[in-house]
Amino acid sequence: MAAADTEVSTLQKVPYQNYDHFPLIVGFDVENYEGSHDKHRRKDNHRKGELTEFGFSILDTADVRNIPPGLNCANWFPLIKSRHFRIRGREHLRNGLFTGDKGDRFRFGTSTWISAAEVRSRGFGQLYLISILENREATKKFARWQ
Fold first, then answer.
1. What range(s) does the Gfd2/YDR514C-like C-terminal domain occupy (predicted)?
2. DSSP characters for 94-141?
3. Which residues, other chains included, contact 38 with Cβ-Cβ below 8 Å and sequence gap of 6+?
4. Residue 146 Cα distances to 20, 32, 52, 114, 120, angstroms
5. Where do the domains of the chain lie?
């Protein structure tokens, strides 16, 4: 196969075959309070590894099968479904020593405040994935992990 045969143009549709199932591309981001990881530096009473925020983004490749990605995948970005959650009662826990604190700069929708008890009782996976992708039965099965 020549090199030209393996290249994909971002201005043309991706050359999919007729698949029965299209994969989901899922990205997770979890942020813990960094001050709770080093007991020698702590000046507060917070527990180890306290969750301060988490989020996920999902691209359903079935949605993009007939859409050229465009320059830097600009045509696909509107099709990515994202959710961002911040933990109520932990607003004062700010990172900055090892990583930038950008919990209030979510650029892909609105952040949702939830309690730590709600996260624990429902588990990350089941919490909101189903509501985002409720139109796909396979996704519902995937989203039930805890």
1. 26-121
2. ---SSS---TT---SS-EEEE-HHHHHHH-HHHHHHHHHSTT-HHHHH
3. none
4. 27, 19, 19, 17, 10
5. 3-143
- Max Cα separation, the chain? 62
What's the CA angle centered on 58, arms 14 and 10, to 5 degrees? 25
Of 67, 49, 55, the closest CA to residue 13 belongs to 67
Per-residue pLDDT reduced to its tens digit, 127-146: 445 444 444 554 444 444 33
Look at the block and give the residue holding tokens 């925020």.
53
The owner of tokens 């900055």 is: 96
Tokens read off for 120: 């624990």
